[in-house]
């Protein structure tokens, strides 16, 4: 017999500003669910997650959670005012002895637990919230854009962690590769309706298109029926008045049915205008290097970028991608080497921090008060690639309503802010696009459209992104930065880079070894494996980690020694037992890692 669902929503209704956001939503979430929640920006995905979590009270309907089951929500804007460090926040609410779970999550997510909330960025705060929910491991995890502000290494760690967990989760993400890898069923929010499909994200687009196709067919049939009834109403025999009145009422009902149908929002009318062409050579860098506070960011790097290329920069957070981007575009001088920019360069820059958007001003003012964009002389118009357009009309092209036009930027979702920034950029002529993390928060449909636009763009693109699927679909060349100042060129996007790297490693492994000309003990030291800075730091930290795990195991063993614990608190007994087993596994891994690094250090 199947276990009852963890959570059930019945006939949920929710309105905002008098307009229904959801009406009659019914859904169930079962144990072990691997669900992606998809929908257009502004469709209500995040709001639905909050209803599921219990944080938002619906106007009608019922929410039921199975007794003994827990639901956890990853807060994108957590309140850290009562905590001294991000680690203190992430560990709050855990059982005694379970703090190690936060430390393991922090390591995988590249979170510094000692960071103070005052000095933490928005991305660091979100990583702390993610570490907290992963450590708490509720029966159902609700994850809203968990991959935002994570680099590819941290995304891979999170992907592996979620793949191995037995807990259910519902996640919102723009990262197609992440969704394809993890999900087994789909919830789709569209015009107030929540549909469920027992297939993962891999099958979403085919399912969506079939729903739209059926919807169009039904609308076509309804229109034909209305036309037929309208013709009869005009040409009918007036003598049979009773029957005629029934047909007239039927015609009115059909028209009401058509009027009640909510029209699908089309794609945003996005387009880049390249204006005048740049020279054939856009950027040429020769032997450039940069060091900050004694740390080598880039060392002896050279590249020639021709018009029309799509150059992606790949690497962990903090490795220096934005620094290299700023040098290549002339915003930052290199310490050594030269950078030459081509002729007629017209750049348009998408900043990952959205710093060009003032949260306090309205969308209207955000467009018209930017001097770089230019105004036609009236504050209700904006120059769009040389043509005056009404502000509201232009915003509607990017799927914003007239009410939103007069509202503040701060009221927008992350995806809507990204769309507004794209609207600003696309009002300008450009032939060099600099896109620093443009995919964060964008929905799947807008990502598809952006990729198509970049394919048709006649200029040059410099791109920083951790979205593997987007990199594969856009990049013609990748600059991979792995630390220590090294930046290596690879043809293609993320998957191409992975294939080439494996081929290079395989070739190096299978290459014939040079004949020995000296006894083994006289082998040159240069051939000894060299430890990286990260490995040296890890070797110093591992004894502390091992000691901590041993101490925590001792505490848990003492806790479990209570003979009455199993009968008085079976849930706590089980959690403590699981924690002890997990810690034992972590200790074994740490000891093996320490031995391997010790051997490497000894040569």
Would you mind describing this structure in some detail?
- The protein has 603 residues and is an alpha/beta fold.
- The chain folds into three domains: 7-206, P-loop containing nucleotide triphosphate hydrolases (Rossmann fold, 3-Layer(aba) Sandwich); 281-501, Rossmann fold (3-Layer(aba) Sandwich); 530-602, Valyl-tRNA synthetase, C-terminal domain (Helix Hairpins).
- 42% of the residues lie in helices and 21% in strands.
- It has 19 helices and 20 strands.
- It has helices spanning 45-53, 86-91, 99-109, 122-136, 152-164, 176-182, 204-235, 241-260, 321-328, 363-368, 391-397, 402-405, 414-426, 444-456, 468-474, 494-510, 533-560, 565-568, 570-602, and strands at residues 7-16, 19-29, 34-39, 60-65, 71-73, 140-144, 168-172, 185-190, 193-197, 281-292, 295-306, 310-314, 336-341, 347-350, 381-384, 387-390, 432-436, 460-464, 477-483, 486-491.
- The chain has a six-stranded mixed beta sheet, sandwiched between helices. A six-stranded mixed beta sheet has the order 14-17-18-12-19-20, with helices on both faces. Strands 2-1-4 form a three-stranded antiparallel beta sheet, with no helix packed on it.
- Strand 19 (477-483) and strand 20 (486-491) form a beta hairpin.
- The termini are far apart.
């Amino acid at each position: 017999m199947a276990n009852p669902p963890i959570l059930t929503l019945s006939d949920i209704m929710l309105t905002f500003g008098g307009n229904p956001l959801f009406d009659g939503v019914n859904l169930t979430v079962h144990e072990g669910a691997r669900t992606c929640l998809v929908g257009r920006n502004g469709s209500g995905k995040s709001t639905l997650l909050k209803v599921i979590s219990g944080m938002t009270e619906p106007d009608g309907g019922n929410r039921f959670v199975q007794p003994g089951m827990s639901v956890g929500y990853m807060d994108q804007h957590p309140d850290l005012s009562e905590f001294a460090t991000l680690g203190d926040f992430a560990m709050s609410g855990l059982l005694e002895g379970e703090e190690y779970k936060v430390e393991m999550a922090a390591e995988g997510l590249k979170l510094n637990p000692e960071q103070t909330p005052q000095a933490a960025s928005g991305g660091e705060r979100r990583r702390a919230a993610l570490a907290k929910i992963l450590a708490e491991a509720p029966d159902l995890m609700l994850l809203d854009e968990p991959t935002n502000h994570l680099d590819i290494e941290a995304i891979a760690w999170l992907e592996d962690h979620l793949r191995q967990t037995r807990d259910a989760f519902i996640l919102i993400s723009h990262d197609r590769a992440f969704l394809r890898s993890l999900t087994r069923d789909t919830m789709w929010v569209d015009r107030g309706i929540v549909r469920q499909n027992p297939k993962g994200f891999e099958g979403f687009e085919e399912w969506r298109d079939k729903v739209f196709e059926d919807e169009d067919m039904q609308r076509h049939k309804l229109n034909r029926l209305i036309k037929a009834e309208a013709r009869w109403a005009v040409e009918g025999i007036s003598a049979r008045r009773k029957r005629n009145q029934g047909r007239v009422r039927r015609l009115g009902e059909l028209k009401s049915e058509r009027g009640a149908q909510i029209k699908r929002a089309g794609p945003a009318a996005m387009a880049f205008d390249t204006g005048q062409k740049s020279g054939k050579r856009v950027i040429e860098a020769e032997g450039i290097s940069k060091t900050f506070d004694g740390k080598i960011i880039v060392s002896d790097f050279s590249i020639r970028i021709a018009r029309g290329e799509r150059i992606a920069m790949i690497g962990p957070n903090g490795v220096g991608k934005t620094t290299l981007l700023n040098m290549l575009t002339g915003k930052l001088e290199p310490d050594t080497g030269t950078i030459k920019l081509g002729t007629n360069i017209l750049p348009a820059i998408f900043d990952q921090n959205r710093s060009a958007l003032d949260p306090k001003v309205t969308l209207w003012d955000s467009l018209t008060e930017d001097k770089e964009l230019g105004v036609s002389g009236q504050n209700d118009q904006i120059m769009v690639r040389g043509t005056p357009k009404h502000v509201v009309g232009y915003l509607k092209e990017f799927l914003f309503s007239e009410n939103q036009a007069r509202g503040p930027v701060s009221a927008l979702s992350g995806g809507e802010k990204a769309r507004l920034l794209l609207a600003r950029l696309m009002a300008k002529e450009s032939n060099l696009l600099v896109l620093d993390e443009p995919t964060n928060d964008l929905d799947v449909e807008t990502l598809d459209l952006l990729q198509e636009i970049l394919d048709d763009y006649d200029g040059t693109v410099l791109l920083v992104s951790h979205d593997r699927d987007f990199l594969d679909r856009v990049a013609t060349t990748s600059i991979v930065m792995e630390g220590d100042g090294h930046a290596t060129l690879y043809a293609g996007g993320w998957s191409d880079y992975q294939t080439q790297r494996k081929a290079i490693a395989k070739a190096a492994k299978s290459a014939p070894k040079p004949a020995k000309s000296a006894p083994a003990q006289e082998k040159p030291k240069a051939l000894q494996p060299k430890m990286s800075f990260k490995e040296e730091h890890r070797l110093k930290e591992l004894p502390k980690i091992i000691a901590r795990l041993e101490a925590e195991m001792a505490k848990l063993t003492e806790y479990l020694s209570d003979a009455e614990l199993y009968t008085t608190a079976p849930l706590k007994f089980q959690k403590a037992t699981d924690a002890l087993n997990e810690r034992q596994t972590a200790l074994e891994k740490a000891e093996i890692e320490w031995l391997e690094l010790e051997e490497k250090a000894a040569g």
